Batch of 4 targets.
Target 1
Amino acid sequence: MMNALNPIHNHIPMENAPKEGGSGLEYQVLTKDDLLKILPFGKTKLDQLLQAGILPVIKIGRDYITNHHELDEWFKANRGKELFY
C-alpha cells in the first residue's frame, strides 16, 4: 500500500515500488539509475551527493545501492534542513 504522505513513494515507478507480502514490505535494492528516477535532480547533482556521502547508500566498487526504507528515514531525519556538499 502506498502512503499518500510519503513523498518518495509518490514518485516511484511501479516496477521499483516496495512490494507487500505476508511479512510486510520487502526492501527492494535501488541502484543509482533508480535514484535518478526517484529524486528531483539530475545526474551531476546525484553524483555530488553520492561522492560527498550525503545520501544513505552503500558503495560497492563503483556502484551505489540503497532501499526505500533508508531513503524514507533519511528524508525524515533531514526534513527542514539545508544540506551542503
Note: The longest strand covers residues 63-67.
Target 2
Amino acid sequence: MRRHVPLLRTILPRDGGLKEQPMLEEKLKQAIVGELQRQAANRPQALKVDGARDAGSSEELTVNGRIDLGALVMVIAGSVAGGP
C-alpha cells in the first residue's frame, strides 16, 4: 500500500523562513553557552567559562567550576521546545 506523503515544498514556508532561523544544533549551542555565561556572571568565584566568544565558530569551550545542572537542563529543554 502506498501512502501519500506531502511534498517538502508544501511543508516549508514559501518565504524561506527556515533558512534564516538557526538550526537546532546552533540553537542548542547558543542556549548552553548563554546559560553557562549567566551562571559564571552570577557566581564568578565558583564558575569560569573560557572560549564562549568563539563558541559560534569553534566546537570547544573550557568550563571550570560548579554548574547548576537543573538550570542548564531547563534552558536546553526550552531551546528544544522552541522557547526564548
Note: The chain has a mean pLDDT of 78.
Target 3
Amino acid sequence: MHKITAVLLLIALLFSCKSEQDPPNILFIFADDQCYNTIHELGNQEVITPTLDELARPAAGRE
C-alpha cells in the first residue's frame, strides 16, 4: 500500500512541475553482465557494438 501511495505521489509531483524548457531525453539501457568498458566506443577493442556506439557518440560529445 505504501509503494502505491509513493508512486502516485511521485507521478503527481512530476506532472505538477511546470517547466518552460523541454525536459532532457534520458535513455536507460539495462543489460546483464555489461559494464561501461564493454562498449567499443569506450575503449573495448574485442567486441564491436555499432548500435551502442551510435548511441554513445552524441552523449560523449563525439559526434
Note: The chain has a mean pLDDT of 75.
Target 4
Amino acid sequence: MASVLVPWAALTFDRRRLNLPRAIIFAIFAVGAVFGMNAMRIAIFLYIGIQVAADVPIGGSHSSFETLSLLVVVGLARVALQHPVFFR
C-alpha cells in the first residue's frame, strides 16, 4: 500500500513544479519497480529456502528486505524527479 501512496503523495505535493503527464508515467513505472523487486525477493527467498536453508526466509529477513527495496525505489524516484525533464 505504501508503494502506491508514496508516489501519489510526491505527485500531489510537487504538482505545480512537475510536468504532470511525464511524472504520472514515471510514478507508474516506480510502482511497477516496487512490485518487480517484490517478485524478485520472493524468487530469491524460494531459492534460498529450497537450496540453502529453509529457516533463513522464515526468520523475518523477508520483511526487512521488502522495506529496504521500497525505500530504495522511492529514494531513486525522488532523486529522478529532480531531473529537468520532469519540470514544466
Note: Residues 48 and 54 are 7 Å apart (CA to CA).
